[in-house]
């Protein structure tokens, strides 16, 4: 599976000389002929190693002509799509007021879900169990903004998710369980609470938060792991 993201700044890189380097400025230990003060060379020092994910893309499905589509404008707005067919596609659009959306997909092939909520309470849940892979897009703009996504794939299958929240309370949680988990999680403005769990091999996570109540990092990765984290206010 290929999710497209711009290449973010690398993590955990520093131009400073590591502690214990005998050649560092101000160390009196011998280095390159500089006898200085007597003493043993310092230890090499230990640090945390981070891996930054390569740019990746979550593909749009090529099956948009065979799926379920719901569009709602104004007032309470409650929508649910449940699919069990092979390679199914679900799309929900909600604009204004209550806005509750849920997609449940249990497929023998790949599951695709695309949810967008604009304004007011905005509560969304995606549950995907595609044996050959799962793809989820979820966008919430303004007001309540509570998003939950769970993706469970087969032993050799892939999960991809792009979840975005803009403005207001912004609560987001993601659980991915599969062989190749890829996620881009973005919150922009206001409360901003976010958690991510990636279980399996080849995990890649981009975590972006800006403005107001930035959460403590709540990230779990097992197996191969790489991540990029950006927080700013």
Explain what this protein looks like in three dimensions.
The protein is an all-beta fold. It folds into two domains: 20-44, no CATH class; 68-232, no CATH class. 0% of the residues lie in helices and 48% in strands. The protein has no helices and 15 strands. Residues 2-50 have low confidence and may be disordered. Belongs to the CsgA/CsgB family. Keywords: Signal. Pfam families: Curlin_rpt.
| Count of distinct structural domains | 2
How much helix, percentage-wise, in residues? under 10%
What percentage of amino acids are in beta strands? over 45%
Number of helices: 0
Question: Mean of residue pLDDT?
Answer: 78
Distance between the termini: 33 Å
**Taking strands numbered 1, 2, ... along the chain, how are they ordered across the largest sheet?**
1-3-5-7-9-11-13-15
Which class do the helix and strand fractions yield?
mainly beta
Shape call: flat
What string, H for helix and E for strand, traces the elements in order? Answer: EEEEEEEEEEEEEEE
Biggest beta-sheet profile? 8 strands, parallel
Radius of gyration over all CA atoms, rounded: 22 Å
Spans of 5+ residues with little confidence (pLDDT < 50)?
Answer: 2-50
Layout of secondary structure:
Elements: E1 68-73, E2 78-83, E3 89-95, E4 100-107, E5 110-118, E6 123-130, E7 133-141, E8 146-152, E9 158-166, E10 171-178, E11 180-188, E12 193-200, E13 203-210, E14 219-221, E15 225-232
Parallel strand pairs: 1-3, 2-4, 3-5, 4-6, 5-7, 6-8, 7-9, 8-10, 9-11, 10-12, 11-13, 12-14, 13-15
């Amino acid at each position: 599976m290929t999710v497209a993201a711009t290449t973010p700044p690398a993590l955990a890189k520093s131009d400073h000389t590591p502690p214990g380097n005998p050649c560092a400025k101000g160390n009196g230990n011998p280095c390159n002929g500089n006898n200085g003060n007597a003493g043993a060379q310092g230890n090499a020092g230990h640090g945390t190693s981070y891996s930054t994910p390569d740019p990746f893309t979550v593909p749009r499905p090529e099956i948009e002509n065979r799926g379920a589509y719901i569009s709602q404008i104004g007032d309470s707005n409650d929508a649910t799509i449940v699919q069990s067919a092979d390679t199914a596609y679900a799309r929900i659009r909600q604009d204004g007021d209550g806005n509750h959306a849920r997609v449940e997909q249990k497929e023998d092939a790949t599951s695709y879900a695309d949810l967008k909520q604009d304004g007011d309470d905005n509560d969304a849940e995606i549950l995907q169990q595609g044996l050959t892979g799962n793809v989820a897009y979820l966008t919430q703009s303004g007001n309540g903004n509570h998003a939950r996504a769970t993706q469970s794939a087969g032993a050799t299958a892939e999960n991809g998710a792009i979840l975005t929240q803009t403005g207001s309370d912004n609560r987001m949680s993601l659980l991915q369980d599969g062989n190749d988990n890829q996620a881009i999680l973005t919150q922009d403005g206001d409360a901003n609470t976010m958690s991510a769990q990636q279980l399996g091999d080849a995990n890649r996570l981009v975590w972006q938060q800006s403005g107001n109540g930035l959460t403590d990092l709540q990230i779990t990765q097992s197996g191969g792991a790489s991540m990029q984290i950006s927080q700013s206010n």
